Amino acid sequence: MPVARTRSVALLGLSGSIVEVEADLGSQLPAFLVIGLPDAAIGESRERVRAAAANSGCPLPARRLTVNLSPATLPKHGSGFDLAIAIACLAAAGRLDPGSAGALVHLGELGLDGRLRPTDGVLPAVLAARRAGVQRVMVPAANAAEASLVGGIEVVGVASLAEAVSWHGGDVEVVAVDPVLAAQPLEPPLVHSGDLADVVGNPEAVAALIAAAAGGHHLGLYGPPGAGKTMLASRLPGILPDLGLDQSLEVASLRSLSGLGVGGLSTRPPFEAPHHTASAASIIGGGGRLIRPGAAARASHGVLFLDEAPEFPTSVLDVLRQPLESRSISIHRASAIASFPASFQLVLAANPCPCGQWSPKGEACTCAPSVKRRYLSRISGPLRDRLDLELWVPRLTTTATSEGAAGRVSSAEARRRVELARAVAAERYRQTPWRTNAEVPRPWLRGAGGMHPGSRATVAIDRALERGGLTMRGYDKVLRLAWTLADLDGAGVPDGEHVGQANVLRRAPLWAA
């Protein structure tokens, strides 16, 4: 058969497109060409495929082979096309059933000995195949468990090219080989394994943390070293509700695309805490021709924690401004645009000054006022304006510790409160695409929400808006937080007290100093 076809998947961000892999066997001088906008890794597949086929007992004919990856205008990246190219070439040479080859999507990298090696991004690729109506996909044996997380599609795991050819009806001797194993999944650091009951003597901070979890709000924590900012932030994922199936698949797909491995679907929200030396690309995502997600995308449906926030370069912090508004990340390159989800909760933690000793109570601080202002200004005003809560976390005293020990709240109890509040919000927004108060847009607040400027409940923040103490974005964030406080209290609609409390939580006292 001179032309044979099979299919594979090209990933761009989390989006996948079906690629038709065509192989033509010509009568010209022996050659092996791959066309259709391949990258360097796909171009090198010619040598991998030829060697793998020869070492598997089904060598390619000494004729001109032309492989086309269609559509030709779509960029293709990575070595995951090796198996599809090999199957299409062998089908064109008559070594296996072309009808069987065309019915499957093939994913996997070939070794020179014919064994199949695991590849990154198998989970989002299989999801894309299922969305395209594909019923069966062939992957390396090491990726079979990951691919099987997608329901509604049959997964065929093979360890070698010979096994794949035999499955398609080819006459080849299948020798048992040890499959190439995938690296063990990198587990996220267990910084969020503690219980909220470990926090003693900070009832206001615990209440603010529960409010942030209930409404999906972004949070800023400020205070001296040792006050417990990191401890509070690391407990936030533990009080968030479990992830749904679609959310778990999205989180696992992002890990797969990042090369971190997928051990299974996790129902717990992710937690990302990059070091302050991280670059903008590592936070937001990027790369050359192969665009990978950054920490902000991997934190989707969970928490992105930036400890020692003023130590991050301002340019790195400011790349988060657009994703915080749109809840998505778009990375533009000359040849393509990759999109990733960014529905994370941002938590910033910072000392009030370089020495860390400033406090609203006037404790000794060795920093000049200009030094303190310059230090805090590394967190830009537009980024702060996107935070829903800013909280001062004081250093604990012996008295506060002993008084707070009796009123501790466990993570399980806090999660129950958060789930109840989120259920109330979900019922309120059941006819809309939103599920948390932080997602509600301005028109709803002005319309169905009834919390427009001039209403009885908004008198206090109306004055702040007129004086310039609040931006319009900040005004809306106060209203969203007021709805969350009302949900936690079991009130149907926020009143003036909820709005006033939300306005107090809007700004930490150090910014007025």
UniProtKB/TrEMBL annotation:
SUPFAM superfamilies: P-loop containing nucleoside triphosphate hydrolases, Ribosomal protein S5 domain 2-like. Coiled coil: none annotated. Residues 215-397 form the AAA+ ATPase domain. Gene3D superfamilies: 3.30.230.10, P-loop containing nucleotide triphosphate hydrolases. InterPro entries: AAA+_ATPase (IPR003593), CHLI-like (IPR045006), Mg_chelat-rel (IPR004482), Mg_chelat-rel_C (IPR025158), Mg_chelatse_chII-like_cat_dom (IPR000523), P-loop_NTPase (IPR027417), Ribosomal_Su5_D2-typ_SF (IPR020568), Ribsml_uS5_D2-typ_fold_subgr (IPR014721). It comes from the Bacteria. Belongs to the Mg-chelatase subunits D/I family. ComM subfamily. This is YifB family Mg chelatase-like AAA ATPase.
